[in-house]
Amino acid sequence: MAKKEQWQKNLNALWIGNFVTGAGASMSLPFLPLFISTMGHFPKWELTLYAGLAFSITFLSQAIVSPLWGKLADRTGRKPMLLRASIGMTITATLTGFSPNVWVLIGLRLIQGAFSGYINNAYALIASEVPMEKSGKTMGTLTTGAVGGQLVGPIIGGYIADLFGFRVPFFIFGALMLIGSLVTFFYVKEDFKPLSSTKTGKATSAFANVKHVRVVWAMILSSMLIQAATTSINPIISLFVKELMQGRGNVAVASGVIAALPGIATLVAAPRLGALGDHVGPQRVLIAGLIFCGLMFIPMFFVTTVVMLGVFRFLVGISDAALLPVTQTVMTLNTPEDAISRIFSYNQSAQAIGSVIGPMLAAGVAGVLDYRYVFLMTTGLVLVNLVMVLWAYRTDNTDATSLNNE
Predict the structure, then answer these.
(1) Within a domain: 198
(2) Which structural domain, as residue segments, surrounds residue 333?
(3) pLDDT value at residue 399
(4) How far is CA 361 from the centre of its chain?
(5) Is residue 357 in a domain?
(6) Which residues form the Major facilitator superfamily (MFS) profile domain (predicted)?
(7) What is residue 194's DSSP assignment?
(8) Residue 196 lies in a domain
(9) Alpha carbon of 107 to those of 34, 56, 165, 357, 402: distances in Å?
(10) Residue 140 sits in a domain of what CATH number?
(11) Cα dist. 288→196, 232, 304, 329 in Å?
(12) Residue 190 · residue 126 · CB < 8 Å
């Protein structure tokens, strides 16, 4: 009972940590292109390119270093990795607010990515402690922390940027991560047992003892495609909103609201869909979420007002609640505790790669064609994801049937 109480306390503390991380990180992203536009007179193609690069570069460095941090976490514990991430982002976010030009901004976001990973390590710590029968609901609850932050972050950031300029949200991001560092240091307690030297000395694959390896790999690749789809609009969202508003009104605030709307739906739906996955199986929830997601992106191509865009963005948030938490649950159920940080770090790398691919593809599509074609590209990513997940489950079931018949 004591252990159960401690993982619940950790869940509460990490929920706060996820919330401030989500709020801080999302506080400036929706109007990052507007911030960049104040640093020079750039044509449309150059502005979209810089916006895509500034957004994606953080995730590129994150993708490279995440497996190294994950391997270290399985040896030293997840709490040190949480503190490394929160303190690192405290420093880099604050410095970003002082960026004198676009290249310093891009360089600082590159460094930030190398020291990020708070949310992923929060998942890994809770996954190593939560009872299996409660993993779906717990992962869904933890997701609401980050999503709740991502919900309020753009709205508050939009108002702050309008009143005080685009630099101030970065300073607030740094302050929020300092709060996250303190909460993690004082309230997260980890009963970590390091791997023996003989075990760590062996070059054992993290997937060596994973059940249903093909399905776990499908979840990792699915995370990449989900992230690519959901983040593809980020570099161009404020520019598209500005186009829909025809340059009139408070574009920063409207962009913040549009960016936050999916979070409202995800915040409400994630724990419920996570619990539903515990009852009917995560496979069904994931497939239904992918189908619904694809159906919601197509109408965005035809929107003519900010309100219409907001409605479909809200509905996409429901599908988000059925996607990433479910992939986390599947990995939790199939991964041994001594490899869970490594598996989750590979998943974080995949998500980070998705956060590079999606925005860069979107920047290219928007620069060559139009902002609207980004939504058609995103629909294609969702369809590829759906086919891959169906194939993985089908082949895994076929292999299991063949083994049972032998």
Answers:
(1) no
(2) 2-190+204-405
(3) 54
(4) 18
(5) yes
(6) 10-397
(7) P
(8) no
(9) 18, 12, 21, 19, 52
(10) 1.20.1250.20
(11) 42, 21, 28, 16
(12) no
Q: Locate all alpha helices (DSSP H) within 232-281, ordered by sequence.
A: 237-244, 251-280
Amino acid identity, residue 250? N
Looking at the structure of the chain, the number of domains it has is 1
Quick one: pLDDT at residue 180? 93
Is residue 350, in this structure, part of any structural domain at all?
yes
State the DSSP string of 100-126.
-SHHHHHHHHHHHHHT--HHHHHHHHH
Which residues, other chains included, contact 380 with Cβ-Cβ below 8 Å and sequence gap of 6+? none
Q: Report whether 341 contacts 73 (CB < 8 A).
A: yes
- At residue 17, the pLDDT reads 93
The span from the CA of 200 to the CA of 12, in Å, is: 31
Closest C-alpha among 182, 223, 216, 219 to residue 59: 223
> Consecutive sets of 10 residues in the chain, 406 residues long: mean pLDDT of each?
66 91 82 82 80 80 79 80 91 91 91 84 79 71 80 80 87 93 90 57 58 76 81 75 78 75 76 72 79 86 86 84 73 69 76 80 79 86 86 69 42
